[in-house]
Amino acid sequence: MQKEEAERFLLNCIEKRLFINLNQMKRINWIILNVKDRTTNYGIGSYIKHFAYEMSLVSEISVFIISISYRGSSKINIQKIAGITYFNINSPFDNNGFYSMHCQKKLANGIVKIIYPYISRRILTVVHSNHVVQSFFVEELKKHFHCKTIFTQHFFYNINSEVQTFDFEKAMYTLADNIVTVTEHGKTFLLKDKNVQKNKISVIYNGLNPLCVNAKTNDTKNIVVKKYGIKFSEKLILFVGRLDEIKGIKFLTEAFGNLVKNNSDYRLLFIGEGSIDDLVLNTRSFSSNVSFLGAIPQSDVTAFYCYSDIGVIPSLEEHCSYVALEMMHYGLPLVVSKVGGLKELFQDKINALIINMVDFENPWQIAPDINSLTISMEILLKNRKMRMLFSQNLKKRSQEFTANRMIKEYLNLIR
Predict the structure, then answer these.
(1) Which superfamily does 218-398 belong to?
(2) pLDDT tens-place string over residues 58-109
(3) Which pairs with CB-CB distance under 8 Å and at least 24 residues apart come from 66-72?
(4) Considering the entire predicted model, what is its pTM?
(5) Class level of CATH domain 14-205+402-413
(6) Do the domains at 14-205+402-413 and 218-398 have one common CATH topology?
(7) How many CB atoms sit inside 10 A of residue 45's CB?
(8) What are phi and psi of 27, to 5 degrees?
(9) pLDDT tens per residue across span 303-347
(10) Residue 121: half-sphere exposure toward Cβ, Cα within 13 Å
(11) Within 10 A of 413 (CB to CB), how many other CB atoms are there?
(12) What element of type H or E holds 184?
């Protein structure tokens, strides 16, 4: 009976995030490896931000983030903010050295020397990598610390980059004690395409705990739409993310062009960084109905999650997207591609409209069906009852994708 009471007490403490008992009650260093580029500033960057914050709330964990920029000039900045120690390192090698074995080994050796005085070697250290190229850092850290290594697979590589990164991938899959995929889709890929050992793989979906959202009011909506030159009466279709080909934005603009022919009160909003040259050309005949907002403050992004009528994720490949999770948590009715992790996050006609994919000549060999995308957006925009149902179901579904749950599952790997 005493054992059962003790177990209940520990579980209660975990729920309240007062402390985590990791078998021997030892403290743990948790080193998170990050590469700073445009890709990681979005998906992986969001993941690291949420993960590190939640992990720092666990009293037995000391969190360290090593962020590397490939700018061809040496610079080191070390700071501690809200209990997290940041090592911001500018590599002396530029992007050309990113896939160079010699450069990576030399950089890894130098970084270990930098962080060595700051991290206790008397306790267990978890080295948590998020990019296959970090295999050199994992290998070097294992030489100097009592390590358990975790690699989180956030995305896959297309045919062109896979030629360059295969050896890095193989090294990482061998070095890592645990490999985390953020979807079942990712696990299947690792087993079938990369022949990774099944007992190494765990599926842990991404999670976030957004701040409580105030009730929608016309006054608040009026402020944000005025700021960006949008008419209050317009129905808003929201895209958030990198303006890259893989995000399917070319097909979104084509579908929106069909949609706006019959209704001039629709507006397509693009939030995110990237080249807009092709998008401007694609939308020139209906440019008055399209807004490219670029990178805007997160508070404004959140406002658009709250006040847009629908969100669209027309990606050609996607895993456990943080944009998808954010839209889910804020209850934004969605139209999404039938690909990868999106098929796991959303249920067709329950909390989203899911678009079938068709064959297409591009690196991914697929594209969203334009006609289906056009019709689905129109149906959802015109059906307020469906939008309300989707919003309600999305908020319920979001409780399965919290940062608290994500952290507990990672801690289970090292117990």
Answers:
(1) Glycogen Phosphorylase B; (3.40.50.2000)
(2) 999 999 999 998 877 788 999 999 999 999 999 888 777 777 788 888 999 9
(3) 66/31, 66/32, 66/33, 66/34, 66/111, 66/115, 66/137, 67/34, 67/35, 67/36, 68/33, 68/34, 68/35, 68/36, 68/107, 68/111, 69/36, 70/35, 70/37, 70/94, 70/95, 70/97, 70/98
(4) 0.87
(5) alpha beta
(6) yes
(7) 19
(8) -75, 160
(9) 999 999 999 999 999 999 999 999 999 999 999 999 999 999 999
(10) 10
(11) 14
(12) helix 184-193
Q: Return the CA Rg of the chain.
A: 23
Q: Which of 331, 321, 310 is nearest to 256 (CA)?
A: 310
Strand 366-368 vs strand 357-359: parallel, antiparallel, or unpaired?
A: antiparallel
Question: If residue 47 lies in a helix (H) or strand (E), which one and from where to where?
Answer: helix 45-56
Q: For the chain, give every domain's residue range.
A: 14-205+402-413, 218-398
Give the contacts of 347 (CB within 8 A, at least 6 positions apart): 393
Six-digit token string for 276: 């807009």
> In this structure, what are the phi and psi dihedrals at residue 156, rounded to the nearest 5 degrees?
-110, 170
Tokens of 277: 């040259």
